[in-house]
Amino acid sequence: MNFDGQIVVKAPRPAVFEKLSNPRFFASCIEGVGDLQEIDPTHFTAVLETRVAYIRFKFNISVEIAESEAPHRIVAKSEGTPMGVVGRLTSTSTATLSEADGETTVAYSIEVALTGKLGSIGQPVLRSKAKELERQFAANLKAAFEPVNP
Q: N- to C-terminal Cα distance for the chain?
């Protein structure tokens, strides 16, 4: 499955890149991510708990920052193994940042492959869950740059 889209953030590109490059911030933008551990500056592990349709999943996730070209592009590769279910999730995510008029556009592309029981759930259900996660991530990223009202 492939997902593409754009998120427009009212902030300069270097500031957005810095936030997206921070694993703790990035993880905080995804509902259900916890127990983030840094293995080294480009490798991390975490636990993702989520519900897809009527099934609750808990994944052990490993992430590698495969490419980081400040402040233009970030590529991350992820692999997840669900606890208690046979299957595997792998993904490659690419974010390319461009700036115009003080706003940054984050163009992203995510390629996801699912095997085992995960793959049998069905693409329409998984697409729906991915869109929900995308909306939450975009809202959290934008909120990080909104002015705080005193």
A: 43
